[in-house]
Design brief:
By secondary structure, the protein is α/β, with parallel strands linked by helices. The protein is 52% helix and 12% strand. The chain contains 10 helices and 5 strands; from the N terminus they run ααααβαβαβαββααα. A 5-stranded mixed β-sheet has the order 1-3-2-4-5. β2, α6 and β3 form a beta-alpha-beta unit. The longest helix is centred in the last third of the chain and has 29 residues. It is elongated, with a radius of gyration of 33 Å.
C-alpha cells in the first residue's frame, strides 16, 4: 500500500519512487480554516511600531483608527516594560553622583541607597542582600556609596545606613546595626522592612520576624504577670 505509513514507504518517498503521502481530508480542512483565520486578522496586529509608520498610506480610515488604538496600546506596554527593566542591579555611585542619582532621580521612582564602609561586616551583609533584592525588584533603584565619599567623619556606630527616597524626599531611614535588623539580618527581613515603607512590592505574606516578636511580647507579658503576683503575695504576707 503506497499510502501506508511505514519506514520503508518513507524511504521510497525520499528517493521519489513513491509519490508524496496524500494528506487526509481532515488535515486539509484544518489547513484551510487556519489560512482563512489568518486572512481575517488585520495585518497591523503583526507589525512593529516602525512597520506601522511605514505602511500608513496603505490603510483606510477605519484601519487608521484601529491602528492608533493599537499603537497606543503597544506604546504603553513598551513604556511599562522599559520602566520595569530600568534597574535590576545594586550600582556603586560616588558622592558627587548623589544628587543626580538619588535626590534628582526619575519621577515616582523609589531609590534605596546604602552608605557603607567595607571594613564593617554588617555593611557587607547588607550589600549582599540589597544586590539580590535589586534583581528581584528591578523597578526600584538600588545604589550604594562608600560613606566617606558622601559624608565626612560619619561615625561607624551609624553604619550601615539605608536611606529610602522618592521624588527627592527621604521616605524612610535605617541607621545603625539595630535599625537595619541586627548582625544576623536575613534577606527576607530586609525585604519586609523595605516593603513596609513602600519601596518594593513584596510577595511575603507576613513579617519574617513575627514569631520572634511574639515570643518577646509573650516573655515580657509573663514577666510582668509574675512581678505583679510576687508583689501581691508580698503585700498579703505583710498584712
Amino acid at each position: 500500500d503506497p499510502n501506508e505509513d511505514t519506514e520503508w514507504n518513507d524511504i521510497l518517498r525520499d528517493f521519489g519512487i513513491l509519490p508524496p503521502k496524500e494528506e487526509s481530508k481532515d488535515e486539509i480542512e484544518e489547513m484551510v480554516l487556519c489560512l482563512q483565520k489568518e486572512a481575517m486578522v488585520k495585518p497591523f496586529e503583526k507589525m512593529t511600531l516602525a512597520q506601522l509608520k511605514e505602511a500608513e498610506d496603505e490603510f483606510d480610515e477605519e484601519d487608521m483608527q484601529a491602528i492608533e488604538t493599537y499603537r497606543e496600546k503597544r506604546l504603553q506596554e513598551w513604556k511599562a516594560l522599559k520602566k520595569k527593566q530600568t534597574f535590576g542591579e545594586l550600582r556603586e555611585i560616588s558622592g558627587n553622583q548623589y544628587v543626580n542619582e538619588v535626590t534628582n532621580a526619575e519621577k515616582d521612582v523609589w531609590v534605596i541607597i546604602h552608605l557603607y564602609r567595607s571594613s564593617i561586616p554588617m555593611c557587607l551583609l547588607v550589600n549582599q542582600h540589597l544586590s539580590l533584592l535589586a534583581r528581584k525588584f528591578p523597578e526600584t533603584k538600588f545604589v550604594k556609596a562608600i560613606v566617606n565619599s558622601c559624608i565626612q567623619h560619619y561615625h561607624d556606630n551609624c553604619l550601615p545606613t539605608i536611606f529610602v527616597y522618592k521624588n527627592g524626599q527621604i521616605e524612610a531611614k535605617f541607621i545603625g546595626i539595630i535599625e537595619c535588623g541586627g548582625i544576623n539580618l536575613k534577606l527576607e527581613e530586609l525585604e519586609w522592612k523595605l516593603a513596609e515603607v513602600g519601596a518594593i512590592q513584596t510577595d511575603l505574606e507576613e513579617n519574617p520576624q513575627k514569631d520572634i516578636v511574639d515570643m518577646m511580647v509573650s516573655s515580657i507579658r509573663n514577666t510582668s504577670i509574675r512581678d505583679d503576683s510576687d508583689s501581691s503575695n508580698s503585700d498579703n504576707d505583710t498584712k
